[in-house]
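U., I forgot to send this yesterday:
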Amino acid sequence: MSKPFALNRLPSSIREELLARRAEKPGLTIDDHFTWLTSQGHQVSRSAIYRFLAAHDAQQARPDEIEEPTDAQSIRLGCLMVAASFCAPGDQIDLIKTAEVLLSWVSE
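Result:
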């Protein structure tokens, strides 16, 4: 299990202000954030600030609401895509039947 962020020990108001400062002034460097945190009386390393901000960016880039397809969903979608290359455009009944045949073949 990974070590918790040093910034998580800081008050939430400081973390939120750090994120707000970064959003308002994207040109600020890690050193700028380090200087600001030090002036607020908090001692954290530059690398801890970088890791905290990078993790925040990663979380923003991939919100929790997005679900990855399961293996079964991926297989079904793949069968549907292959079936679409064999069926006449607009013939949904044939498309579904062909996809089901492919799915049964893959499942065996």
